[in-house]
Design brief:
By secondary structure, the protein is an alpha/beta fold. The chain has a domain of 208 residues: Alpha-Beta Complex (Amidase signature (AS) enzymes). It is built from 14 helices and 11 strands. The protein has an 11-stranded mixed β-sheet, sandwiched between helices. The chain starts with 9 loop residues before the first helix and ends with a helix. It binds glutamine (GLN).
Length: 462
C-alpha cells in the first residue's frame, strides 16, 4: 500500500485518486465524491508527518466505501431511493478502524439497492459498468467498489458479502475480494441485509494488502454480539500455512459440468496443475448437499431481509412520500415509492416463507438444509485443507441480459451462497482472462477462522 510520507503527501495521493475518479465518471462508480472532506483529512495527516508524529499503517491511503457503510461524510443511501437524504449520526466500526490508521475515504460506491443483486443493475442510481468491457455488468452487489479498485482509482475498497457480493464482482473485474469467516469484522454501522450471513470484507489488488486490512479490522466489538475474538492476529495452527507440498486442495466434482463456462473450468484446471507442480495433492470432493444451497439461501435471506427492511417506514430515515392521508398511507406510499422492485420481491418472499402455514414448509426446511451444508463443509475439510472452485458459473455478462429474469440472476449465485450459509471464508482470486478479454475468477475456500491461511496460500496461486 502506497502510504503518504514527506515526499509524496497525502494531499497528492488524494488529489490523484479524485482526479482518476472523475476521469472514469462514465463507469458510474461513485454515488458521492468526498472532495472537501478527503482533502481536509489529507492536510491533517500531512501536518502530522511534517511534525514527525505517529500516522498509522494506512496514512493518506485513499479508499472507496461501499454506500451501505455508515459514516458521517455524505449521505448513506445503500443506492436506494428510500434512504436518500439520510446522513448518519454514527460511524461503522470498520470505518473507524481503517480511518484510525490514516486511510481517507474519497467516495461512496454504487451497489444494488440494499445489496440485493448480482450485477449492480438494481441500483436506484443506475448500473456501474465493468472495468474491462463497458457493455458488461460490474457484478454485484458491490460493483462500484470492485471497479474502483480494478481501474486503479484506489488501492482498496470496502464491500459486504451476504451471498457473493464481494467475490463475484472481484471475479468479474480481475481483482482479489475476501468474504471473511462470519463474525470476523464487526457489522456495526453497516446497513443490514441478512444478519446471519452478512460479512464485511475488502477488494484489493494483492493478497498482501488484504492481509493488512484484515489485521486492522478483525476482532470483537461490543456493538456487534456476533463478532469473534481476534483470531486473525493470533499465531495458531489455523493461521500459519504448512509446507505447501503437504497441502491437499479439494475440487468439487458437482461443479464440473456444462452449466459452468468452459473457460472458467479451464482456468480451474490450470491452477490445479500449478498446485500439483508445487507438490499439492488435488482431492475430488462430492458435496451433494450444495445443490440445496441456492434454494435455502433464497428462503432464509429474504426472510431476514423482510425483517431488517421493516424499519424503513418514512418516519426515521431518508425519504418520506408526500401527501399521505394517514399513518398507514405514509408507510405504504413511502415503501412503494422508495424500494426497488427487487427489494419488494424479497420482502414479499420473506413474509410469505415466514407466514403461519408456510413457515414449516419453507423456512424450517431451508434451516435444515443449511445444517446439511454446514456439515458437508466440515466433512470436506477433514479430507482437504482448502477448496478451489469457480466464483460464478460465467464471467461478466451483458448489461440488461438478466435484469428482467430474477431466476437467471439468482442462478449467478449458485457457487457463492453456500459459503455464507456455512459461515466459512472465501477469497476470490484472479485467474486470467477469457478469449474476449474478460477476467476469470476462482475462489479459495477454507474452514472457519482460516482466513489468514487462505490469504497466504493465494500467494502460491499467482
Ligand atoms: N447476489 C446475492 C443476492 O442477490 C448476494 C448479494 C450480497 O452478497 N449482498 O442475494
Amino acid at each position: 500500500m502506497k502510504t503518504a510520507n514527506k515526499k509524496v503527501t497525502a494531499e497528492r495521493l488524494v488529489r490523484d485518486a479524485l482526479e482518476k475518479a472523475k476521469h472514469f465518471a462514465d463507469y458510474n462508480i461513485f454515488t458521492f465524491l468526498n472532495e472537501e472532506g478527503a482533502i481536509k483529512k489529507a492536510r491533517e495527516i500531512d501536518a502530522k508527518i511534517a511534525k514527525g508524529e505517529e500516522v498509522g499503517r494506512l496514512a493518506g491511503v485513499p479508499y472507496a466505501l461501499k454506500d451501505n457503510f455508515l459514516s458521517r461524510e455524505g449521505e448513506t443511501t445503500a443506492s436506494a431511493h428510500i434512504l436518500e437524504g439520510f446522513v448518519s449520526p454514527i460511524e461503522a466500526t470498520a470505518v473507524k478502524k481503517i480511518e484510525a490508521e490514516g486511510a481517507i475515504m474519497i467516495g461512496r460506491t454504487n451497489l444494488d439497492a440494499f445489496a440485493h443483486g448480482s450485477s449492480t443493475e438494481n441500483s436506484y442510481f443506475g448500473p456501474t459498468l465493468n472495468s474491462h468491457d463497458k457493455n458488461c455488468v460490474a457484478g454485484g452487489s458491490s460493483g462500484g467498489s470492485a471497479v474502483a479498485v480494478a481501474l486503479d482509482i484506489v488501492e482498496f475498497a470496502t464491500g459486504t458479502d451476504t451471498g457473493g457480493s464481494i467475490r463475484q464482482p472481484a471475479a468479474f473485474n480481475g481483482i482479489y475480494g475476501l468474504k471473511p469467516t462470519y463474525g470476523t469484522i464487526s457489522r456495526y454501522g453497516v446497513v443490514a441485509m441478512a444478519s446471519s450471513t452478512d460479512c464485511i470484507g475488502f477488494f484489493t489488488k494483492t493478497p498482501e494488502d488484504m492481509d493488512l486490512l484484515m489485521s486492522i479490522t478483525s476482532g470483537q466489538d461490543s456493538k456487534d454480539m456476533t463478532t469473534l475474538p481476534d483470531y486473525y492476529n493470533e499465531d495458531s495452527e489455523m493461521s500459519s500455512l504448512a509446507d505447501i507440498s503437504s497441502l491437499r486442495v479439494g475440487v468439487i466434482k458437482d461443479f464440473d459440468n456444462e452449466s459452468v463456462d468452459e473457460e472458467i473450468r479451464g482456468a480451474l484446471k490450470k491452477k490445479c496443475e500449478l498446485l500439483k507442480s508445487k507438490g499439492c495433492e488435488i482431492v475430488e470432493l462430492e458435496m451433494p448437499s450444495l445443490k440445496y444451497a441456492l434454494a435455502a439461501y433464497y428462503i432464509i435471506v429474504p426472510a431476514e431481509i423482510a425483517s431488517n427492511l421493516s424499519r424503513y417506514d418514512g418516519v426515521r430515515y431518508g425519504f418520506r412520500a408526500e401527501d399521505s392521508e394517514d399513518l398507514d398511507g405514509l408507510y405504504e406510499n413511502t415503501r412503494s415509492e422508495g424500494f426497488m422492485p427487487e427489494n419488494k420481491r424479497r420482502i414479499m418472499i420473506g413474509n410469505f416463507v415466514l407466514s403461519s402455514g408456510f413457515y414449516d414448509a419453507y423456512f424450517l426446511k431451508a434451516a435444515k438444509a443449511r445444517t446439511l451444508i454446514i456439515n458437508e463443509y466440515e466433512k470436506a475439510f477433514s479430507k482437504c485443507d482448502f477448496i478451489l472452485t469457480p466464483v460464478s458459473p460465467n464471467p461478466a455478462f451483458k448489461l440488461g441480459e438478466k435484469i428482467n429474469d430474477p431466476v437467471a440472476m439468482y442462478l449467478e449465485d449458485m457457487m457463492s451462497v453456500s459459503l455464507n450459509l456455512a459461515g466459512v471464508p472465501g477469497l476470490a482470486i484472479p485467474a486470467g482472462k477469457n478469449k474476449t478479454g474478460l477476467p476469470l475468477g476462482l475462489q479459495l475456500v477454507g474452514p472457519r477462522r482460516s482466513d489468514k491461511k487462505i490469504i497466504e496460500f493465494a500467494k502460491e496461486l499467482i
